[in-house]
Amino acid sequence: MNDTTATTSSPSEVDLLVDVYDDRKVRIEFRLYRLGDATRAKVTVSGSGTMEGAHALVAFLDKAVAKATADKTSAMVFLAAVESTPIRAQFLLGKWLIGNKQRVGQVSVVGAKAWERKLASAVAAIANFKHIAFHETEVAGNTFLGWQTR
Asked: What pLDDT, in 10s, does the model give residues 98-148?
């Protein structure tokens, strides 16, 4: 994992955390950034999900909670390149969400296949998290989150 903090990627965005996990089965790219008063996260997952990858993502999420500058962080999660997801990994993420849902704003899941949608919906339901939506495109996700596009 490579942790890069407090760099600027554009004049209006300030990176708070940029990290990558890659175990050759799954790759997770994580970016937490501030835009004005808002804290946003973008997560891209590709490959076959692993428990090690799920633990790495939880570690990224824990770091993000510590570095977030807003009360709630909205997120866009890209899953179009995910080939499979272990149920145990979904439940690990659900456990994290249950413990941290007060810090999570809206979540847009982009490109999830039917299986990932079903699991993510179940996890959100278990966590009583109602601010999640599934989208086919990043544009639709941006609209749901109220994010401006360039």
From this structure: 999 999 999 999 999 998 888 888 878 878 899 999 999 999 999 999 997
pTM of the model: 0.87
pLDDT tens per residue across span 60-78: 999 999 999 899 999 999 9
Phi, psi of 51 (to 5 degrees): -65, -35
The SS3 assignment for 87 reads helix
The Cα 65–Cα 37 span in angstroms is: 15
Angle formed by the axes of helices 87-100 and 51-67, nearest 10° = 20
> Is the separation of the CB atoms in 50 and 81 below 8 Å?
no
Domains, the chain:
13-145 (3.30.750.24)
